[in-house]
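#structure-requests
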Amino acid sequence: MILVYSHKITNRIKYSFKLIFTDVLKSDVAFTDNKEEFEKSNFPKINYSHHKTETGIFFKPSYLLFENGIKEQDIEVFEHNQNKCFFRVSNESALPFDVFAASFYLVTRYEEYLPQIRDQFDRFTAVESLAFQQKFLKKPLINIWANEIAAIVNEHYPQMVFPEKKFNYISTIDIDNAYAYKHKGILRITAGMLKAIIKGNDFSKRVKVLLNLAHDPYDTFELQYQIHKKFNIKPIYFFLLGDYGFNDKNISVKNRKFQSLIKSIADYYEVGIHPSYASNSDVTILTKEINRLKNIMHRDVTKSRQHFLKLTLPETYRNLIDNDITHDFTMGYSGQPGFRASICSPFYFYDLDTETVTNLQIIPFAVMEATFKYYLKSSPEEANKEINELLEAVKSVNGTFVSVWHNESLSDEGNWEGWKEVYLKLLEKVSQPINA
């Protein structure tokens, strides 16, 4: 166990140290504001105050973890050990920057509470982030810093043994639109046929699928089962169950084939809710969609990922908590791969408005195939290269690598030709030993 001393123990301090030592390094941490108790303790010790003590490792703090509320921060980014850092402190500190304050700033998404430019879907974008602008979006900085802290602790206290961490991979599949042509109701099918006639693109394909003379290209579910069985992967599925709207276009929740699909997948894998775009601004809609999934599966729903990755802090997470969601997988960007919160380990949501840590665990993702296809206009080969680089970054710190895929991208048809292979290569890579 690590004992931490500070002249004032705040919620922010407790959260930041538990983030590093408990969430990332898997070790216990305790706190005291009693200097005499700290000096007498035989535990490995960290002094997080403005003055050195006779014993303990001295990490000089900046101001952030002693503040309340949200305000513009003066961020000066510099390099230490070939990694970006900020909140510079004096050289007498074990590190030349306040690593705990910097971690807090990044993982709480402090900058997303500040005035900002948002995209057409009212989302905070990667290009507005400190990580993108300072070119560390593709590094899990907090994990890197945590390992550096562990090395410093071991240097001072060789008896301190941190548990061995292991690389972990989680495949997640979003079902925004279960079928391309089938099971959409007479009005949507008719509208789709008329649109196909006008554009002259896929009319013949639609007719064949609707007459059961061809396979619906989005119906890749049996293929997914075979792929995941081959690689011994247990993906988590997120189903969109919102009412039809401009940004929510899945099959009607009343459709029996759709319900049967959800039940069959839930027999083998974990299933969570994919809250609709509309639900982000109306918690009653969110509650209705979660209840729909509960009624179909006859079990509780505890996992979620927002449709369109629409995340508004802290409201989105508060609404999930109010609906008994315990794990959310939204933390990532649609427009850029990498680490939105600069971490590749699950962590707990800290509500900056109320200055409290919650029980909602955030599982950040690193890559989504739609990012490469639609935002970056990458080829499958280019996507493979970038995915591998991010994967290696996570493996190097024994973190958790989370990918986001969709059922339609595994069709290997039309715009998605060649992208099934990208997913297969990812599964092959994560299945290899770390040193392979």
